[in-house]
């Protein structure tokens, strides 16, 4: 069983090294773990720091294309690397790499095809009130559209079966959070949330600005929901 953990990164030299070093390399005897960094046009030492920390693979965008584009590339590269399960974790050290085994367990057990680390089912340290309210609003929108309750629709820690990675479509480059979940769940992939411990970043700076987020994400949600989507015949990880 091959698990590839990928980190989309843009100018994260201060945090990415610690994230990579904290990633568990020994999960189960039959699981091989690799780490992939998708560098989205960084102008700092992100790539050098990632390699020094132990990244196995680095894929570079020559220019900054956006988080959605970086996640799309990460999913594609995981498939090319032969991953049975792909795991995405932000490079800003807000999410707990130690809980990656918890995140992939529902996929290994055949209970889910797509999992998200849920801050609101777990523990949150330091999130500002306006960010929390924004998360609530966008998560509620996703829940209404999918007619299924979601607790944390903006999580930066997710895992995918190989088939989910093969079928995932991210229709804009700016972000991925809402459109990816809408796309996969509408195609019939089973979603499960896993409680995690979350700590707001202490280094670097988030790219998210509320007005820009609204400008890009709302039209993308509308576009995704207007697209014709065919439900897939889902296979388990063991059926690959």
Please write the string of helix (H) and strand (E) elements.
EHEHEHEHEHEHHEH
Spatial strand order of the main sheet: 3-2-1-4-6-5-7
Q: Shape from CA axes?
A: globular
Number of domains: 1
CATH topology: Spore Coat Polysaccharide Biosynthesis Protein SpsA, Chain A
Number of helices: 8
- CATH level-four homologous superfamily name: Spore Coat Polysaccharide Biosynthesis Protein SpsA, Chain A
- The CATH architecture term is Alpha-Beta Complex
What is the compact description of this entry?
With 240 residues, the protein is an alpha/beta fold. The chain has eight helices and seven strands, in the order βαβαβαβαβαβααβα. β1 (2-9), α1 (16-22) and β2 form a beta-alpha-beta unit.
Fold and architecture overview:
This is Glycosyl transferase family 2. It comes from Anoxybacillus kestanbolensis. GO terms for molecular function: transferase activity. Keywords: Transferase. With 240 residues, this protein is an alpha/beta fold. It has one domain: Spore Coat Polysaccharide Biosynthesis Protein SpsA, Chain A (Alpha-Beta Complex), CATH 3.90.550.10. It contains 8 helices and 7 strands; from the N terminus they run βαβαβαβαβαβααβα. It starts with a strand and ends in a 14-residue tail after the last helix. Helix 5 runs parallel beside helix 7 (177-186).
């Amino acid at each position: 069983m091959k698990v590839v953990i990928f980190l989309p990164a843009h100018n994260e030299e201060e945090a990415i090294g610690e994230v990579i070093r904290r990633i568990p390399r020994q999960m189960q005897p039959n699981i091989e773990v690799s780490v992939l960094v998708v560098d989205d046009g960084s102008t700092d030492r992100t790539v050098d720091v990632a390699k020094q920390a132990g990244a196995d693979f680095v894929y570079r965008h020559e220019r900054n294309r956006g988080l959605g584009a970086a996640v799309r590339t990460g999913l594609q590269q995981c498939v090319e690397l032969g991953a049975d399960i792909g795991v995405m974790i932000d490079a800003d050290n807000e999410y707990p790499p130690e809980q990656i085994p918890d995140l992939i367990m529902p996929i290994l057990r055949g209970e889910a095809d797509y999992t998200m680390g849920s801050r609101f089912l777990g523990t949150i340290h330091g999130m500002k009130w306006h960010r929390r309210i924004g998360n609530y609003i966008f998560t509620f929108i996703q829940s209404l559209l999918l007619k299924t309750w979601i607790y944390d629709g903006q999580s930066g820690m997710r895992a995918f079966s190989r088939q989910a990675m093969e079928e995932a479509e991210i229709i804009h480059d700016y972000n991925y959070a809402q459109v990816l979940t809408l796309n996969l769940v509408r195609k019939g992939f089973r979603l499960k949330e896993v409680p995690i411990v979350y700590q707001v970043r202490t280094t670097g700076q988030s790219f998210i600005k509320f007005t820009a987020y609204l400008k890009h994400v709302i039209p993308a949600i509308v576009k995704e929901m207007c697209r014709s989507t065919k439900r897939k015949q889902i296979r388990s990880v063991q059926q690959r």
